[in-house]
Write a structure and sequence with these properties.
This protein is of the alpha/beta class. It is built from 8 helices and 5 strands. It binds shikimate-3-phosphate (S3P).
């Protein structure tokens, strides 16, 4: 049996959390391909439902409104009770305590950890993140990521340092750990 097939037998969902620019969406797609699971992204679900971009939601209705949409999206996943899905999430999903409980009910929660320098490099030309629309985005990244570390820590079953690793190494690491996690549940 291949590693992917072994995981197939035991797996519920794999949920990816972590700071903006840590690679959740790309890794999510890669995992979905390898395991042949569907992949969802809470940001995309919210944009589709609201029929507008996240930066417009922030600009018009504010962050609290967006955070409530994140909770509703996670509740919908939990209520649907589906298995064998990859769910990648927005970087601030851990801010609400109720979301942490919802995340954990969904499956194996993986924190993709990246150094602020890596995030700065990846996001330097990106203007889609309203929270980084500040005078000094680098400083904002450092501050926000430091403040959120304990939240990612308490929300996740696994922390994976992604700096310097390629996508294949990261996805293999996640699949191996998921197999162990679901095998021992
Ligand atoms: C946010 C991260 C974004 C998006 C929104 C807020 C955050 O998602 O949900 O801009 O608070 O960290 P990504 O982590 O996919 O960039």
């Amino acid at each position: 049996m291949t590693l992917e097939e072994k995981v197939e037998h035991a797996l519920k969902n794999i949920v990816l959390i972590g700071f903006m620019g840590c690679g959740k969406s790309a890794i999510g797609r890669r995992l979905a391909e390898k395991l042949n699971y569907p992949v969802y992204d809470t940001d995309s679900i919210i944009e589709e439902k609201e029929k507008r971009a996240i930066k417009e939601i922030f600009a018009t209705d504010g962050e609290d409104y967006f955070r409530a949409l994140e909770t509703t999206t996670l509740e919908a996943f939990v209520n649907a009770g589906r298995k064998k899905e990859i769910i990648s999430t927005g970087g601030g999903i851990v801010i609400r305590e109720e979301n942490i409980r919802l995340l954990q009910r969904l499956g194996f929660v993986v924190w993709l950890d990246a150094k602020p320098e890596t995030v700065v490099e990846r996001l330097s030309r990106n203007t889609d993140r309203p929270l980084l629309n500040t005078e000094n985005p680098e400083e904002t990244i450092r501050e926000l990521s430091l403040n959120r570390r304990p939240l990612y820590e308490s929300s996740s079953h696994l922390r994976l340092e992604t700096d310097g690793l390629d996508f294949d190494e990261i996805t293999t690491g996640i699949i191996e750990s998921a197999r162990y996690f679901f095998g021992t549940q």
